[in-house]
Amino acid sequence: MTALLEIKGVMVHFGGLTALKDVNLAVSAGEVLSVIGPNGAGKTTLFNVITGRVRPSLGSVVFRGQAIQREAAFRIARMGIVRTFQKTEVFGALSLVEGVLAGALARGDPDPETRAREALESVGLQEKAHLRADQLPYGDQRLLEIAQALAAMPQVLLLDEPASGMNHQESAHIVRLIGQLRTKGFAIVLVEHNMHVVMTISDRVMVLNYGETIAEGRPAEVRADPRVIEAYLGVQKTDARAG
Ligand SMILES: Nc1ncnc2c1ncn2[C@@H]1O[C@H](COP(=O)(O)OP(=O)(O)OP(=O)(O)O)[C@@H](O)[C@H]1O
Ligand SMILES: [Mg+2]
User: Fold this and answer.
1) Closest ligand 1 atom, CA of 48?
2) Does residue 125 contact residue 201 with C-beta atoms inside 8 Å?
3) In the 8-state DSSP scheme, what is residue 132?
4) Ligand 1 site-directed mutation target among 17, 47, 194, most atoms within 8 Å of CB
5) In the chain, where are the structural domains located?
6) pLDDT along the chain (243 residues), means of 10
């Protein structure tokens, strides 16, 4: 299977700090790749590189065979790589439909309203479409962010801690949703600290520690890897809001 998105030998420095060191990954349509690791490991930086917000000093990002590491962020989004953010970023004062419309408009969609409604439907928020984003409970706001991303009709979806702060029921919904998106053929890269979510939904898991890949494989292999247990799983932070 040819990968839709490939990262090859990516290196990122912030002053004296090496945030990513020779990182490689590949993800195909219909696949969920999770990237896990301790705080500060470089997971969000990896998303920033893929989406054109951070330029790697070495290495390449290849989307459908084309090197894109020098492209502007808005062009990368238009090509079909869209992300959500670790910290919730919804358009508070807008109705759900209006907020999601922004995603469709950014793509220059000929029928943005339909696209927005479909995107809300795919995350299960269609009945709340008339509400303002800031009237939603936190878990729904995280779903709304995914809807905003979907409205841009991506092929690759990068999700930065979508289940953070969610209760058990909400994170179970996220697992179902990601499964549906995989079935629809999206290539999904998931950054997540909730190990139940990661181990349930991922086809493959890669583990970053201080910017370096220390393990990669199927969820069960990675979970049993002594280096991963030592660097991360054994000392995993508890997410206070998860309850
Ligand atoms: N724009 C930046 N300028 C300087 N340093 C940065 C910048 N962005 C990230 N860093 C540093 O790079 C390292 C990796 O950060 P990053 O946010 O990618 O980690 P993370 O794996 O997403 O962590 P978390 O699980 O806490 O979200 C950290 O040491 C961070 O302080
Ligand atoms: Mg992060």
Assistant:
1) 18
2) no
3) B
4) 17
5) 5-80+154-242, 91-149
6) 93 97 98 97 98 97 97 94 87 82 80 92 93 89 93 95 93 96 98 96 98 97 95 69 39
